[in-house]
Design goal:
8 strands, binds D-glutamic acid, Rossmann fold, four-stranded parallel beta sheet, single chain, alpha/beta, 10 helices, about 210 residues
Length: about 210
């Protein structure tokens, strides 16, 4: 099977690598939109204009399923994309449900891009799975750029992590695939005060379900 994996930038690469490792008999074709990253400050219309041609090209190249390895695109435009692309799309979205199941303090934190935090899908996830929880959303608006440029400033990460831990968050959701690259750094700063979760295994499980149906 040929699996397309798309993200605005390097975030999706971590997901593509995890898929390759978990499903070695398949071919993974990874593409990004290096020219226009980050997407986190873009509108739905802008994203749609950028993403549709990229996904269409993956379909032309023979991809039978495409993983949208981007929370920003998934939460903002995946329904529109499904109407425009002829193969199944597997999305990545903030793990609010899993965080709600895991928290003991009733406080969780979501690290995400501005577009994800603004999306109606994100609002729905919170309303549905975390109606009684306190959800902390620190400003991570510069993080995708910082990671894309390989200029990780640990002080910025430290500031957010320490702030949410001080407010009792015991689960931190990495809701932008770029942040997978700083998961170890975040865990080191967290130092056991919270559990850090990210969606690679959930995506792989969903992808397996789609692949058996193809
Ligand atoms: N990696 C993406 C995400 O999961 C997008 C980051 C960006 O382009 O701003 O949200």
């Amino acid at each position: 099977m040929k699996i397309g994996v798309f993200d605005s930038g390097v975030g999706g690469l971590s997901v593509a690598e995890a898929i390759e490792k978990a499903l070695p008999d398949n071919e993974v074709v990874y593409v990004n939109d290096y020219e226009h990253v980050p997407y986190g400050d873009k509108t739905a219309e802008q994203m749609l204009r950028l993403v549709v041609p990229i996904l269409s090209k993956l379909v032309e190249q023979g991809c039978q399923v495409i993983v949208i390895a981007c929370n920003t695109v998934t939460t903002t435009i995946i329904n529109d994309l499904r109407q425009r692309v002829s193969v199944p799309l597997v999305g990545v979205e903030p793990m609010i449900k899993q965080a709600a199941a895991a928290t003991k303090t009733g406080v969780i934190s979501v690290f995400a891009t501005p577009a994800t935090l603004k999306s109606s899908r994100y609002a729905w996830l919170k309303k549905t799975y975390a109606p009684t929880l306190k959800v902390l959303e620190p400003d991570c608006s510069q993080w995708a750029r910082m990671i894309e440029d390989g200029q990780v400033d640990e002080r910025k990460i430290e500031a957010n992590v320490n702030r949410v831990c001080a407010q009792n968050a015991d689960v931190i959701v990495l809701a932008c695939t770029h942040y997978h690259w700083i998961e170890d750094t975040i865990n080191r700063i967290v130092a056991g005060r919270a559990t850090v979760i990210q969606p690679e295994q959930t995506v792989i499980a969903q992808l397996r379900r789609v692949l058996v149906r193809l």
